[in-house]
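If you are new to this repository, start here. Below is one unmodified record pulled from the training split, so you can see the exact layout before writing a loader.
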Amino acid sequence: MASNSPPLVLPAVPSGGGGGSLAANFKIASYNLAGLDGQGNIFLTELCSVEQKMGVILVQEHWLSPEKMDHIKNFDPFFTTFGISGMTEKISTGILKGRPFGGGSNSGT
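And here is the target side for that same chain:
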């Protein structure tokens, strides 16, 4: 069941180190999708929108099997995404029983 609570968004933090003036102006969001299909897809689309100005999106519980990982890796052309399925071992043992589970990904612009 998807949560109606907003994702955790951290404020931009100026980078220090060496007294430079370079500042990082982007947001980081972390969200439990409770499945990419359905509401998870809609919410991830919103997080990826230009208006949100997200620099990094951390996703948990996308529920994708290994053969469907391209659905999240290619979700948005402006983000580079790395992810893992939580069901690799379960699927390798035979027929999947029950609902999908697990998985995580990191996306960045």
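Two things worth knowing about this chain: The helical segments are 39-48, 70-73, 88-92. The longest strand covers residues 54-60.
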